[in-house]
Amino acid sequence: MKSDRLEIVFARNDGYLWGKNVPAVDLTLHSRQIQKWKSRQTARFLLTQLFEKYQLDLNLLNNIQKTATGRPFVADERIDFNISHSGDWVAVIFSYSEGKKAVGIDIEHPQKTRRYKALLDYYASETEKTYLLKDPAKLVEHFYLSWCLREAILKSQGVGMVKLREVCHSPIQKAIACEYCPTGTLHFFSQFPFYLCYFFEGSAVPEISQYHQGNLQKIEKILPLVYQVN
Description:
alpha+beta, six-stranded mixed beta sheet, five-stranded mixed beta sheet, 13 strands
């Protein structure tokens, strides 16, 4: 397999993806617990698809470990991955390279109105807020840009969201600075039924696909907002 491969795959957490391969869900669970369970199964399914695509050892997925901060990883120094889920959607970012390259991802499927300005007041600088709040028609998109990029950056190193304020976002310069992340690139998409943001270290060219109707269907001609990190 060629080195420096980078893939982002997303899918709905529909049972048809994985229903024949896992035990039946306990229907006494709360609906929110069932949703999380379905998302975990979907993430595992997507990772399996990627491992099979690149002929990697599936036993690695049976022995997923966690760092001290709870970030999952496998015992192969060529592989890094990260998972995110929101609502009915699940996204996985997968990196394969000679010398592990860090990745992080966040997907947000808004299902309710949030206190956007209050949240921005909590973690954003005055300069960032001035830009994000200047156009009320774009408030929701701008909020999720600022939120998702922080999630993706911090998740690349398994750092908790308590460090939100320590991510410096310069929306005009399209630049991000954070001591909890290596130098790299960040992409943000608002064109899907959800907001998608991912960070990657290195120079690999990302390939984005949706798992739909039994296949990985490559997404083309949809361009992201691009940020340089550190």
